[in-house]
Amino acid sequence: ISLPPNHPSLATSYNNIGGVYANMGEYSKALEYYEKDLKITLKSLPSTHPDLATSYSCIGEVYNDMGEYSKALEYYEESLKIREKALPPTHPDLANCYSNLGSVFDRMGQYSKALEYYEKAFRIYQQALPSNHPHMISSYSNIALAHKNMGQYTEALSKFEMALKLGCAILHTNHPELGTLYNSMGSVYFSMSNFPKALELYKKAL
């Protein structure tokens, strides 16, 4: 099949290939294909098209995984700008953008900034999704981890307990996400020097 060099279908293919390389941890290859996708998308679609936001977001994710946080922020912020223009204020894709930005600030050790973005994401998810949606579990967890990293252990436990309550209600009992939650809660109790409780939760994670 021969398509014109700027055909949107080519951009989709490049994005798909980039995604495979990203999942394999081959970040330079992922960037090569994501940048080809972005180049075509910029030429072929309007400046507020959701696919353009996705292209920027994919590149941001690779830079985040590579530890190049200033680059990750740059691309995630471009994605956010487009989505803020193109989408209603309670669209879940906007929440995903805020969550992505939160994760970068979290990795940079800027926990209060991370918390700010995680809470923005949470407020949208609360309005846009059913209360038992799996995204709510990760949203509670993100907020909890930011509180933990700031030494705010009571707040962290409160959010982890909400995540765990929801997780136990909607996930099967041996779902890996539950193990992650038990481990995370255990680490909070460990930080509080409540070692028996930490041990109890770590054992539940097994």
Automatic annotation (TrEMBL):
What's in the keyword line of the UniProt record? Repeat, TPR repeat
**Superkingdom field:** Eukaryota
TPR-type repeats, residues: 11-44, 53-86, 95-128, 179-206
List the PROSITE patterns hit by this protein, alphabetically.
Answer: TPR, TPR_REGION
InterPro entries linked: TPR-like_helical_dom_sf, TPR_2, TPR_rpt
Q: Organism source for this protein?
A: Rotaria socialis
Question: Would the keyword Repeat turn up in this protein's UniProt record?
Answer: yes
> What's a Pfam family this protein contains?
TPR_2
Question: What is this protein's record name?
Answer: Kinesin light chain
